[in-house]
From TrEMBL:
Keywords: Hydrolase, Repeat, WD repeat
InterPro entries according to UniProt: Diphthine_MTase (IPR052415), WD40/YVTN_repeat-like_dom_sf (IPR015943), WD40_repeat_dom_sf (IPR036322), WD40_rpt (IPR001680)
Pathway: Protein modification; peptidyl-diphthamide biosynthesis
GO molecular function: diphthine methylesterase activity
UniProt keyword annotation of Hydrolase present: yes
Species this protein is from: Terfezia boudieri ATCC MYA-4762
Coiled coil: none
Cellular component per GO, a single term: cytoplasm
Taxonomic lineage of the native organism: Eukaryota, Fungi, Dikarya, Ascomycota, Pezizomycotina
Cited Pfam families: WD40
EC class of the enzyme, as a word: hydrolase
PROSITE patterns: WD_REPEATS_2
Protein name (Swiss-Prot/TrEMBL): methylated diphthine methylhydrolase
Length: 334
């Protein structure tokens, strides 16, 4: 395995510059040639926030991105496809809004359809991140700029917030369900990692000592007792939930670990969006205690907030960076 210093540096196969800053990027689960991008625009003169959800197609050989469709939205912070319906997409937005879309892959060209905007909170509240329940296809967990967490059912005609609680004193950047859907983990600017039992509606535990700065990314492994976290303190950590989140392995990735994504299904290999230093592919080791960087991508010249890998094409990465409005396609192996 390679250390961060000696990990192979990869080059882009294609670079696209947008007219708006991209905050999140996804490869469509049902079609690995389709790429979804959410943008976030802040007009400093008007003091307004807006964005768009855009659809592109990767050409043969991943040598190009072709624009297909776009919808104007509030500014988008996060977007996730449902694990129960690969064409159902939810977006976390400013103005207290959750917006859902259906991706019509059968259309020519493919496009977004059946969008629904749900105003959940006051306009000053921002939905910062979301994650779908792994067990209940109707539920989405969202973290809020107020430090709160809300469990939302977007399919209800009204009263969409089914449960909410206040685990953090500052902006809550991320959340993740346990594999059985019972526990919800959340992290925030207050450096707290919080675990809530959604059945009993009681705190399981909280940790404020492990992370040296805000908790920005959480990933649950399928073994149900290992959690990966990212932080502004530049570290990727491997936590053992059997000991209330004891840190059993960590690696400094050189930049704030904003998002984590899976490569493959075993959870051993992850792709990390490391803000101002680019993307890192990390192997957590056979014992899940010895993480090392095996590839890195550093062409992004501003905040790398997102990247994604499709399970049917595990060597191709799409990534984006915010202020330079850059979207890149690159290969892990060369």
């Amino acid at each position: 395995m390679a250390s961060l210093e000696y990990a192979p540096l990869r080059n882009s196969k294609h670079t696209l510059f947008l007219d708006e800053p991209p905050a999140c990027i996804l490869i469509a689960p049902s079609n690995p040639s389709l790429v979804v991008i959410g943008t976030y625009v802040y007009d400093t003169e008007k003091g307004t926030k807006s964005g768009s959800l855009r659809l592109y197609r990767k050409s043969a050989g991943n040598s190009n991105l072709v624009f297909l469709d776009s919808h104007d939205t509030h500014a988008i912070l996060d977007a996730k496809f449902s694990p129960h319906d690969p064409d159902y997409l939810a977006t976390a937005q400013t103005h207290g809004c959750l917006q859902t879309f259906r991706l019509d892959c059968g259309a020519d060209p493919p496009s977004f359809a059946n969008k629904r905007t749900i105003s959940l909170f006051d306009p000053e509240t921002i939905l910062l991140a979301l994650t779908w329940s792994p067990m209940d296809p109707s539920l989405i967990a969202c973290t809020l700029s107020t430090g709160g967490v809300a469990i939302i059912n977007p399919d209800l005609p009204k009263n969409n917030v089914e449960y909410s609680y206040q685990p953090h004193s500052d902006q809550a950047w991320t959340c993740e369900y346990s594999p059985d859907g019972r526990i919800l983990y959340s992290g925030a600017d207050d450096s707290i990692l919080y675990a809530q039992d959604l059945e009993t509606k009681a705190m399981v535990w909280k940790d404020r000592r492990t992370h040296g700065a805000g908790v920005t990314a959480i990933m649950a492994r399928p073994d149900s007792f290992t959690l990966l976290t990212g932080s502004y303190d530049d570290n990727l950590r491997i936590l053992d939930l059997r000991t209330r989140g004891q840190d059993v392995g960590q690696i400094n990735l050189g930049g704030g670990v904003w998002r984590l994504g899976k490569r493959g299904t075993d959870g051993r290999s992850v792709i990390a969006s490391c803000m101002y230093v680019g993307s890192r592919l990390v192997d957590c080791g056979e014992d899940l205690r010895t993480p090392s960087v095996v590839a890195r991508f550093e062409e992004h010249e501003s905040m790398n907030y997102a990247c994604d890998i499709h399970p049917m094409d595990p060597d191709t990465v799409v990534s984006c960076s915010f202020y330079d409005k850059r979207v890149c396609i690159w290969d892990i192996k060369n």
